[in-house]
């Protein structure tokens, strides 16, 4: 057998080994997520007995301990869904823009959703869960288009630095508008400010159910965009040469990310930096192939948000720290580190 004929065989063996390694990492993440779910149900501001945990999982709330566990169950479910949505949305946004600084919070998408919800509450007395979701998705979409348009102006088009600066400026402006609308409304100011921090406390299945269809569509559209994102990573000209409709591919992938961000913000408030940290960490494990990166980012996001929620519950017992604060403490130094690496031009 010649050396030339050995090359395809060697490549296939390396590819199988690489996929096997990635599969093991994926299984490890799934096991970690399961362990964190168990920890989230059992750990909190109140210590509960194992018998109360088992009884609460069976649907009983006959004691204070069982009631405490029954509150943690929907909270755990929401943390998993929100973390997976934000991790996946961050990976999509980084792939669509070829921007390692892309994140739903940094690009102003979350704050756009937040502004739309607050506008609906203040000006139109919006109170339904469906109204919150539709307003958040509309706000997220408009904010994404606005930031990308501003970041595309001038020489060089939409560079990572220009997008990050446009997103940061937009977030500050939208945040100021939210404060300006909320200040005269003392009756809702406390609730809005608490929601703006971002958290999963107080979750109920009644709050989760309305966002499930939007999250489901967002997950499906985003995961099906993996191959298109791989083509876009080669550059627009190469992707077009491969037969990819570049504008349509970007629009479809962005639509999935906007659905995920909007639905999550509607129920949890704007949680920042998770969509920045998770995709970068996952790339270290599986590389840049979006067929692996996207599911890894979803699982990694769920793990990080669950871990942040557990830490927030036990760090200042009997009080709690919202997950939005924990993710900011983790994500802000990570953001500075990425900027200082001098690799902010393109992925």
From TrEMBL:
Protein topology in the membrane: Multi-pass membrane protein
GO annotation (BP), single: siderophore-iron import into cell
One Pfam match: FecCD
Annotated GO CC locations: plasma membrane
GO MF: transmembrane transporter activity
TM region positions: 75-93, 105-126, 132-151, 163-183, 208-226, 247-272, 292-311, 323-340
Keywords for this protein: Cell membrane, Membrane, Plasmid, Transmembrane, Transmembrane helix, Transport
Domain of life where this protein originates: Bacteria
Compartment(s) of residence: Cell membrane
The UniProt record lists the keyword Lyase: no
PANTHER family: FE(3+) DICITRATE TRANSPORT SYSTEM PERMEASE PROTEIN FECC-RELATED, FERRIC ENTEROBACTIN TRANSPORT SYSTEM PERMEASE PROTEIN
Family membership: Belongs to the binding-protein-dependent transport system permease family. FecCD subfamily.
Protein name from the UniProt record: FecCD transport family protein
Organism: Neorhizobium galegae bv. orientalis str. HAMBI 540
